[in-house]
Amino acid sequence: MGSWDTRFGSRNVKQECSSSTSSRLAPETKRLIRLASYSKCQAKSCVCLGWKPLSNQLPIRCDELALINALPCLACQHSFGCHTVQLSSKSADELEELAKCAQAMEQFRAAMQRETSSHDKELYQFLFFSLRRSLSEGRTHRLENPLGLPPFERQNVIDILRMYFVARNESCDGPFGRSPAVLFEAFISWLDGYRLVQPPIFEMLGRRTKEERVDYCVCYDRWFIYCYVPGLCNYFKMHRPSLIFGSQLLAHIFGNSFRNPSVELCLQQHKNSFVTVDRLASFIADFREFLRSFDATVGVPSKSDGLPKCLQANLGDNADSRSKASSKPTRRRSVLTRKAKQADKRDHDIPDTLWYDIKNEYERREQLRRPHILLDSILELMPRDKLARIEEERGQIFVHVINNNLSQEQGKEKLFWLLQLQNVISQQLPRMPLEYVARILWDHKHKNIVLIKNSIVIAGICFRMFVDQGFSEIVFCAVAANEQVKGYGTHLMNHLKDFHIRHGVYDILTYADELAVGYFQKQGFSKKIHVDRSRYEGYIKEYEGATFMACKLYSNVVYTLLSSMIEKQKDFVQLLGERLSAKHDPNTVYASPFASGSDLKLPLSVSQIAGIQAVHVRSTTVSTSNNATDQSSEDLDKLKSLLTKLRSHPSAWPFLEPVDAVEVPDYYGFIKYPIDLETMEHRLESGYYCHPKLFKADVMRMMDNCRRFNHVTTRYYKAAVALEKAFLSMWVKEMEL
């Protein structure tokens, strides 16, 4: 290792600092000399990576720092000051932080000399050069890990143990005994202290596919950097494996034997523990069966009643680790969880008993209407992905995430699906060259989520995830022509969103052509890009004539179940209204507030309306402040001006008045919610539009009705397109929403 020390000059620095000459230097001067040996020379066109002193050239007195600045470097002959010019503007705390970085770097260099494993030696070398790069540039070290930042999974081991405890507690068949807390504490302590086997040894334990070997290697590298190395070097923050890893780590560990001496050592740490190795082994065997049917998309139980204290205590640590461990600009669940807890603390008008009654009534009605669900879905307006979700539940369609991993061990079925997806994309996107589609689709860095029906790929989305940048790019999105308008595209996009949330990516970007903009807008994409340009510039592929769009994801939403959840919420609100209205006599007649002799003036407050207090309506729901009044009057003036401009637009002639039922007899049978500019004017005068977005919704419905009823080649259809474009431009300029 002589050449290594000569390159960085550490041997000379150690000799000088340990000599009697350098012992007389001030501590600040010693620290500066230590940092200079790792600081890049700032002289023009100089490639020297650190100052290397000549033998016995340091001054004897500690106040001769000016003399040190003039001393030449052994390698580049430039002065000491050329190597420390970037350190002169640093504060004492920053210099101390850089000194700790240099100390950690020396520890890693010593660890590399002792390490016999080539894999671990490469990881030490990666950390060494990461620190070396920060020191040479004179900046505080920030670990730029290509493997991502913790937490690495949406649900960590603590969350999975909570779900396991709740599931086994409800079925009363868990191997907990009388002391479940001690059992969980023993398992968590054992897991946090478990030493993962090195990847070469993992490959020797059994036949592994290339994907399994790569997954384990990534998991091991993450564990080594964030859990093992901080125990040797306190410069890096220590992370507990049970808080940053989840089902993937458990799956790798369960492949090995749990009958390990570390279990007994873990049990000895718990003096009051009555857990035996056999009982812990039975718990692990049952936990392994639970993991086989584990679904990562299921939410973690929010209630802590009956949970062991170790699972409750770590819940707060889990939130902290998710919010503080990563500086990546991604959405974390800690903020959402905190808001939800604050909302739960508010006083509710609805008693708990009434909520339970409504829940039971909803379940009873759901059982009665289940045989007619398909008939209802045909006759009623329903979410776009409802039929697709039902087909997936019945096993008629399947969704898979596949990609080409450049291995000969790939299944033929997966390769066949990739070929079918290539055909679907090339047919639906004829402007894309076939060679370009094939190159992107078969690239191992791109993934593809496909929808299989009758063993044939009918839809697919090709995307690439940039985990370090915190976003993903959709390259291709296509549905077979004979399977469109069936909700498959929406259902596939929902699966894609859930897939990204499970991997900690909360922003999706894409370039959409003119025919796909409407589809992406329905899926939550917007032309207003909320992602910082520095995050995606140079990473994504740009297309001429396409619209750049972005979508933000929220970790507390399961998108494949979102539409059904909204449906349930609507049904609950309707049942709640029925229960509340049933408690009051509808035949009760209240006296008019404007009886003879009354001095009431308009507008009335809510409390002045007779009968309102009987139904427990809060008066705070209606704001009568001056600010609200001024705001509503200002919005009203803007809407009137906007309506006048719409009526005077050259393309507004089909929408000036309602459609004549005599001239178009089948119009009102086809269009259930007709609207026109004259009706909107009446609504505006009557105060119907309590919010400007209601006005916008009516305008968009008017355009949509016209496009649905008329053919694309008619002048009515073209007028709707032109007026909609003009309206959206007016809306952005005038309403500023």
Automatic annotation (TrEMBL):
Residues 313-345 are annotated as: Disordered. It comes from the Eukaryota. GO terms for molecular function: histone H3K9 acetyltransferase activity. SUPFAM superfamilies: Acyl-CoA N-acyltransferases (Nat), Bromodomain. Residues 406-554 form the N-acetyltransferase domain. PROSITE patterns: BROMODOMAIN_1 (PS00633), BROMODOMAIN_2 (PS50014), GNAT (PS51186). Keywords: Activator, Acyltransferase, Bromodomain, Chromatin regulator, Cytoplasm, Cytoskeleton, Nucleus, Transcription, Transcription regulation, Transferase. GO terms for biological process: positive regulation of transcription by RNA polymerase II. Its EC number is 2.3.1.48. It catalyses: L-lysyl-[histone] + acetyl-CoA = N(6)-acetyl-L-lysyl-[histone] + CoA + H(+). Residues 329-340 have a biased composition (Basic residues). Residues 647-717 form the Bromo domain. Gene3D superfamilies: 3.40.630.30, Bromodomain-like. It is found in: Cytoplasm, Cytoskeleton, Microtubule organizing center, Centrosome; Nucleus. InterPro entries: Acyl_CoA_acyltransferase, Bromodomain, Bromodomain-like_sf, Bromodomain_CS, GCN5, GNAT_dom, PCAF_N. Signal peptide: none annotated. It is an enzyme of class 2 (transferase). One of its GO terms (cellular component) is ATAC complex. Belongs to the acetyltransferase family. GCN5 subfamily. This is histone acetyltransferase. It comes from Trichuris suis (pig whipworm). The lineage of its organism: Eukaryota, Metazoa, Ecdysozoa, Nematoda, Enoplea.
